[in-house]
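How a chain folds remains the central question behind the approach discussed here. No coordinates are needed to read the tokens, only the vocabulary itself. For completeness, the protein is quoted in full, as a sequence line and a line of structure tokens:
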Amino acid sequence: MNKKLVLTGAGGFVAGSILAQAGPEWELHALSRGGPLLHRTGLFWHRIEPGDGTAPAALIRDLRPAAVLHTAAIADIDYCQAHQDEAERINVTYTLRLAEACAAVDARMVHCSTDTVFDGDRGRYTEEDPVNPVNFYGETKVLAETAVHGTLENAVVARVALVMGLPVLGAGNSFLAKMIASFREGREVGVPPNEIRSPVDVATLGRALLELAADRFRGTLHLSGNDRMNRVDMVRRIARHLGHPESLVVPKDPGNIPGRAPRPRDVSLENSLARRTLKTPMVDLERAVDLVLTLAKEA
């Protein structure tokens, strides 16, 4: 009998990679507000409103899965800053309800967090470094991490770096897709020059999260690429790798845009624990781009 895996946020960017790469060992139950994006044997869609997590938690209690992979969240930093009650309900309360349901049925939980739990003052953050978010989105993710670790032992908080990729099932907001379209049309791409990240590609991330769902690791784990770079250098390297002029990449300081939440400067993550723990390799930027393009073609 296949193990049941519940996937929240199944209409999203990261979840699309998980759905495209999940093996036949899983009986997948995808939770989404919308209709099915993919049909195959062993995949079941549940159209469900997340709300405060009560309905999804009830489904987990009914299904009694081996694991829950929680990717659902409001991840738009500016939206969270402007709609704090909604952000707290989805990012914190929903997560707590899922953790409680997992504890009730002895299910493992893999919760996706973010690099923006850190203040960005120095970068190269390890799993042991203290969190100190500079915006409300980061605050909600810190509260969610605390809820998961405080509710059940068999859990992983996966802090995810800036995710790079293409929507493999037509879902999600991809800066890489917009960037490639601009390059092909010969249009300039404006990029913030002062934000330093350690981007992870969505293909590697999907595999790593699936591995964690079946693994015994407990605690917090950083999932990031091997490169630490500012976003201008990142986009220039992508342009060069894809054969486009680097001159199309233009530093553009977002400045004081009305409604823009504060951003941390350097939230690059140290991924040595992930490299020791997982069979899924963390990769450099050029390899990440190749993996993303391959996944998009095969999905």
Notes: The chain has one domain: 3-165+194-229+262-298. The chain is about 40% helix and 20% strand.
